[in-house]
Amino acid sequence: MTTPLRVVVADDQALVRTGFRMILTADGIDVVAEAADGNEAIEAVRRTRPDVVLMDIRMPDLDGLEATRRILTGAPGEPRVIILTTFDLDHLVYGALSAGASGFLLKDVTPEHLSAAVRLVRTGDALLAPAITRRLVERHARRDPETATLHRDLATLTPRELDVLRLLAQGLSNAELAARLHLAETTVKTHVTRVLAKLRLRDRVQAVVTAYETGLVTASDHRRSEAL
């Protein structure tokens, strides 16, 4: 028998938490705890060891951004975090993605999309809406010497892996990458896995953030690519 997915729902609105609990439970996903602020979310994660956390970005006492940072400290068995927001370009969402969140959802998400998102990130993939995420990163990414130092491992990537990272940053899927690079999709998956491993990145979201923060890709690069 398959073990149900275990989820913590963190939101300062009780009705939102109840609604998400009902949706997830109806789809066979186990909501093991609820939290009304960031501190409660951290405690709930420590207590229940969930697979996924649905984290509201704006909460009292401790917001979802700081709670995400504290949860994703590199400890073994850390959960995946999906950020919930009312605003698709909220600058705090970018901070959460940089901190290691696996993606974000708007609060008007459909029940089917909510359940699918939870299952997706649990598999190790990222919940990446390419156009929205790219615009978010373009708007808020900041490049400085400190960032370059943190990601000096870019030098360990092969020319092909750098090409893959550049295209990842444009929001291309594996199938689109394969078509652009004239490679088999299985080969592309191998390249993506190696890029993430060499740069010690959690998933594709962090790859997008890294590509922009290090200056490997810029907004003008993407506009030129779209024009081709």
From TrEMBL:
Fetch the Pfam families from UniProt.
Answer: GerE, Response_reg
Annotated ranges, domain Response regulatory: 6-122
Q: Cite the entry's keywords alphabetically.
A: DNA-binding, Phosphoprotein, Transcription, Transcription regulation
Among PROSITE patterns, the record links this protein to: HTH_LUXR_2, RESPONSE_REGULATORY
Q: Which InterPro entries match?
A: CheY-like_superfamily, NreC/VraR/RcsB-like_REC, Sig_transdc_resp-reg_receiver, Tscrpt_reg_LuxR_C, WalR-like
| The keyword DNA damage is assigned to this record | no
Signal sequence segment: none
Boundaries of every HTH luxR-type domain copy: 150-215
PANTHER family, alphabetized: TRANSCRIPTIONAL REGULATORY PROTEIN NARL-RELATED, TWO-COMPONENT RESPONSE REGULATOR
The protein, known as: Response regulator transcription factor
Organism, by scientific name, is Streptomyces kunmingensis
